[in-house]
Amino acid sequence: MSTIVLLLVTGLGLGALYFLVASGLSLIYGLMGVLNFAHGSFLTLGAFGGWFVARTLGADSWGVFALSLLAGAVVGAGAAALTELLLIRPLYERHIEQVLVTVGLSLASVALFEGMWGSDPEFISGPAWLKGTTDLAGAPVPNDRFVAIAAAALVLGAIVLFLQRTRYGLIIRAGVENRSMVTALGIDVRKAFTLVFAVGGAAAGLGGVLASQYFGYVSPHLGGSLLIFAFIVTVIGGLGSLTGAAVASVLVAVLQQFANYYLGYGDLIVVLLLALVLLVRPTGLLGRAAA
To answer: How far apart are CA 99 and CA 39, in angstroms?
Structure first.
């Protein structure tokens, strides 16, 4: 029983990381129709931002950890906003060019990060409690899993409230439905779309800092490895569905953990699940068919 509990909670923690990356992917695609293959770079940059703050100030206090999370979110948001302004904005409705540019940016950013910080992982520590465990039904669950789960739940709630309850959320949703009409009313939709990228980048940057705690290190390849599963989660949940991304994140991560432990083929099982979903329901679990 304790093994099942440990695998379940660990899977939920990993699913929280997947969601923090997939939420930005799903948000950006659902509202703007952009497949951003450079999204993992925002995560990596955010992770290094948090690592830099922790290394500079000392990583053993909760205050520094909170500053690391804030730094990761700000760095991720800034990188995403600049990407939208400089690279994506001229390419709306040109999907092939978007893919080529974002894939190229992803590859170039890894090389840039290796040149700046080296290719070897930088090990990181945090508050002592994060490295400890909590007994849950007889299972020693690492405490950083609980932090990741709580962060993902807060991000999901914040994004939903932002889109449903704020003026910019209304502008974004209206701009998606009829951009020309909103522009005719004197509202600059471009600023709202840049904000969407920034929100997605902030979630990715936050996920980068939490991922560095989850794995115990930060490296130039951290974002790329998580991005693969984030795309799988986004497709299984349904492109553009934030709720679908949350459900799929839990499903994929928990299945991966159990399959790794009992079968040793967790990644293969996840890919088979992706194939099954695409065959049975091509729009994803909660996605909607295009009109």
So the answer is: 12
The tens digit of pLDDT for each residue in 41-76 reads 999 999 999 999 988 887 678 888 999 999 999 999
CB 271 within 8 A of CB 234: no
Q: pLDDT tens, 151-192? A: 999 999 998 888 888 877 777 777 666 667 767 767 777 777
Residue with tokens 């040793």: 264
Q: Which two tokens stand for residue 18?
A: 């997947």
Map out the domains of the chain as residue ranges: 2-280
Q: Which CATH architecture has domain 2-280?
A: Orthogonal Bundle (1.10)
Helix/strand number for the chain, H first, E second: 12, 4
Beta bridge partner(s), residue 140: 135
Amino acid of residue 104: G
Residues 42 and 79: beta-carbon distance below 8 Å: yes
Contact 240, 29 (CB under 8 A): yes
Contacting residues for 273 by C-beta, under 8 A, at least 6 apart: 236, 251, 252, 255
Question: Residue written as tokens 């940016």?
Answer: 105
Residue entry with tokens 């967790």: 266
